[in-house]
Amino acid sequence: MDAGQYKDYILTLLFVKYVSDKAKADPDSLIDVPPGGSFDDMVAAKGDKEIGDRFNKIISRLAEANDLRNVIDLADFNDEEKLGKGKEIQDRLSKLVTIFSDLDFRGSRAEGDDLLGDAYEYLMRHFATESGKSKGQFYTPAEVSRVLAKVVGITKDTRQDQTVYDPTCGSGSLLLKVADETSRGISIYGQEKDNATWALSKMNMILHGYAAEHVILKGDTITSPQFTSGNVLQTFDFAVANPPFSLKSWSNGLELEYGRFEYGRPPEKNGDYAFLLHILKSLKSTGKAAVILPHGVLFRGNAEADIRQRLLKQGFIKGIIGLPSNLFYGTGIPACIIVLDKENAAGRTGVFMIDASKGFIKDGNKNRLRSQDIHKIVDVFTKQTTIDCYSRMVLLSEIADPKNDYNLNIPRYIDSSEPEDIQDLHAHLHGGIPDRDLDALNGYWDAFPKLRDQLFQPNRPGYSDLTIDVSKVQQAVLDSPEFQKFTQEAREIITEWFAAHRKKLEEIDETTRPNGLIAALGDDLLARFKPVPLLDEYDVYEQLMTYWHDAMHDDVFMVMNDGWLEAAKPRKIVVDKDRKLSETPDLVVGTGRSAEKYKMDLLPPNLIVERYFAKERAEVDELMSVSEEASRLVEEYVEEHAVEGGLLAEAMDGEKINKALASARLKKARHEGADADEVAVLSHLIKLYNAEAVAKKEFKEAEAALNLATLKKYGDLTERDVRTLVLDDKWAAVIRDRVTGEINASTVALVSRIQQLGGRYAETVGSLDAELEKLEAKIAANLAEMGVQ
């Protein structure tokens, strides 16, 4: 079925399972699970002919007990068109409920990290992707939500009684990301027009542990705002929003304006400023807001230009952040974040602008902000840092200048385009690499002060020559003492950074807050690499965060839930009745059907082998090389003698050669007194086959012994051993290698540029003319020899 319908079934089951489990673990849980309204009741309905109807009644009881009518009961589990008839629906729903029955949400909420919430967000992202334009509006990508939550001014010190409002809250994910930024929570208010999406937001709040006082109301924000007192809008400390872009029907049914359009009425066919002005009016006198809108709001004319000018003159616009295109579901157009701030608006003299349009990674058919992009945007905006081609404070006097006329289009004020690579005509004529091109690489020369003089020598004023052949540049850079010293110093920074946090990592237990842990690690890593030349500290940070998301986060959770020793234990992989593996094994002990296959989630076998069985590993590797060499000799010998007319080709009579066939042919040849050469060839081939079999056997036996010893070693490990292996041999080693990779990548860019410049100006016009004259003379001589004048 369509993803938009599928989500109703999946999220409903997820919700019922979650609240049922939480009610078992906590009698004071947010949801009352009545008799006949639990997930256990759904499990009891498995195999029943009336399973669909029973599911609907169970969900209805749960909904009525918690005032969740039309929230959790939108999916019809008795719909034959979607789920099939008779035995088909019976089997389908029985299998579906079985999948969910294997989950256990009783202890799913770790402090500061919400596994269920993460799962829900993942599903929401997937549904938004699959649902296309019409359904993508209910979900704001989590990465963008985090940026809004941070730049709006929410911090760990934000008080619990302060309020945040989202007038177009969709599934509520944006509000929840704001709440995540606080240490004690915040009072949440939201409004959503679409009934099904409003239901999602209600479920989302409960799944994330927010009680009924966190208000999500239904209705059209512009025509029927729900947070009012008479004809006056309720005001809030903070607001965040991702309104529908350029809504044409925004004013349909509008009667009361609530004073929202005092700075101008938006155009009838475009509602972007209607939402912005509604949010502005909904802020307290010190209120702050961050709103996602299409780039057009920054430069469109007529009524929107008048509103923009008046808001700027009032000082309400604190900042503008340009985002990459294709971030959002339902549209590929680039968007921006407009940050509003009523506090100190009268004294505001400029707008802080960021062009973050180039910081992203491709993720399927969408773009996505990376951890480093989020951190950089927030750091730069919070500290109001000026960075060339990225950010600066633009004075209102510059914006008001007639040449700009209150146009806020970011490229007017920040040129983020790549500098033009200018060809130097003088260098093409007379040789040499222009010094201005080498000066542009000053970041590298700052890191390696002596390298420029090592690679280049003066040619004439303003130009230099390579001292070595262009093909040898890369090796010269890698071999330079400065590069090696730089690499070593970077690795030492990583070592010192990890040592500073090692005790905290050793003490990971059920009370650890993973989000807080990685935030501390990441911020310290950024600070340590900030003064390091050549390396961008945000690129280094991204290496840590990528590893965190790929592996380290899961490692931390395993240790939190099971402890170091238990988390490190191997677990057998389940093999189903068709002998199919549920997972790819990390270690196999034994052979054939009796082979035992193991998964090592926290502690991969290679770490055990490297630390405890290095000698045995070397021996196995040597035996593997011997085995491969033996196979190569067989292959070479067969190729040499199995060609057409060769002795093996004749002996085998065109059949595919293998050991059994070769042995049979040899026996027959000897019996029949065949040609001595044929017997010799077959005999040598059998000898090679035997040597290969012996080599393979020795290799397999040694590998099997190593695998068995490795498996047994897991049982001998102490908690201290496990910590050392995970902390030093796994986490620290991987991060150190990833940072070293960043250094190597930057060096590749330097080498590539030098090779490009060296090749570009290697041949002057004069040298080409001389070569042309030589070739012309050679041709003339050849023609003369042939008697052609």
TrEMBL record:
Q: Where is the DNA methylase adenine-specific domain?
A: 113-420
Chemical reaction(s) catalysed: a 2'-deoxyadenosine in DNA + S-adenosyl-L-methionine = an N(6)-methyl-2'-deoxyadenosine in DNA + S-adenosyl-L-homocysteine + H(+)
PROSITE patterns to which the protein is assigned, alphabetical: N6_MTASE
Do the record's keywords include rRNA-binding? no
Keywords assigned by UniProt, alphabetized: Methyltransferase, Restriction system, S-adenosyl-L-methionine, Transferase
User: Per the UniProt record, which EC number(s) apply here?
Assistant: 2.1.1.72
- Organism listed in the record: Streptomyces lydicus
Cross-referenced NCBIfam families, in alphabetical order?
hsdM
Could you say which enzyme class this protein belongs to? transferase
Report the family membership.
Belongs to the N(4)/N(6)-methyltransferase family.
Identify this protein by name: site-specific DNA-methyltransferase (adenine-specific)
> Which GO molecular function annotation, any one, does this entry have?
DNA binding
Domain N6 adenine-specific DNA methyltransferase N-terminal, residue spans: 1-100
GO terms, biological process = DNA restriction-modification system; methylation
